[in-house]
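Handout, page 2. Input:
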Amino acid sequence: MENQKLKKEIGFFTALTIVMGTVIGSGVFFKPEAVYSATGTAGLGLLAWILGGVITICGGLTAAELSAAIPQTGGMMMYLQKTYGKLTAYLLGWAQTVIYFPANIAALSIIFATQVANLFGTGDHIIVPVAIAAAVFIMLMNFIGAKVAGSFQAVTTICKLIPLILIIIFGLFHQGDVAFRLFPISVEDHPFLTSLGSGLVATMFAYDGWIHVGNIAGEMKNPKKDLPKAIVFGLTGVMLVYLLINIAYLFVMPAAALAATATPASDVANIIFGSIGGKLITVGILISVFGTINGYTMTGIRIPYAMALDNQLPFSNWFKKLGAKSSVPYNGGIVVLLISIIMIFTGKFNQLTDMLIFVIWIFYTLTFIAVFILRKREPELARPYKVPLYPVIPLIAICGGAFIVLNTLFTQPMNAGIGLVLTAIGLPIYLYKKNKGHFSE
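Output:
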């Protein structure tokens, strides 16, 4: 959609709610296990949440400059294509198709099934079949049409706020025998830098989604003034919510206990509200997770379709087919679903999320660097919004991104290696398509 066709109707408050609603998802309910396992202490765990928020704010402010200057369908793919060429944009689309969206769907389906097992007190043997059933059900619902999936998304977005608010309010005033301590920040068996890095990688899954906030720039009444405010206040608000709920968790359960459970939010809810109240909160969390799976499914099945329109995939004509009644790219959905199911069988929640964060942050960091390249190469490019405090904010985003990527590479070489191999598989496909003249640089 061209910029001049977009109606400029979005003001500051609407933009603020879009920012917060896009980012707050399911990670805040489940990532405490990984964060406190990595950090070993409450203080270092909370520091990881704060640093994750700071990097996210800087990343959002930086990427928004490109969103405002290049308001084209495709978002980040278009920024990378304009800066680095077709290959980089293609590899992003490929990575999103075979890693980012399937891994998100798989990881969230696993955690949904884990919550179901926890709710009904069954064994872990039901996790894989329930996870597959959840992923299949959501995909079939999306095949009915975007209207049905969109309505479901609106309902679940409201539902996810209820458990958050209740746990924060009642958790902070909980009277128990747990002593909340910020110090010591680190302990001997958790080296400060590597522990903080692994904890930071874990938090970034909860903060993911910020890249989309700049996409509304073309529809804002005053993007130069309101977009940076919406990003700063919105993402700061998200960070505060995450800090508050983690402090509430730590008032109820010590960091070591949070590190030992795959369902921290439900366990905390059971302590605060009792068995029945805890189960009601768990149901709210389940609805939230179901909605998050739906959000990634809605977006994910359209990536292979968009790539097929440019003949970038094997069997592109097959991927381009739409449902006769629903106009949904169901073939792309089938492939994304099959990859997700394989990942459900082979991966665990934290392994899958760490892998997808590693891969996507390679491209996020390239996006931050693109701001410097385009400012030098195309100074005349119209920029309705410019990142404030340039070059400090983009440099913080780049350093943060590089730290996330390098830390994962050294501390989780298996996850990083799988992500790199799956991404690299797209390279020979690109070269084959290019040599056949299917698309050009």
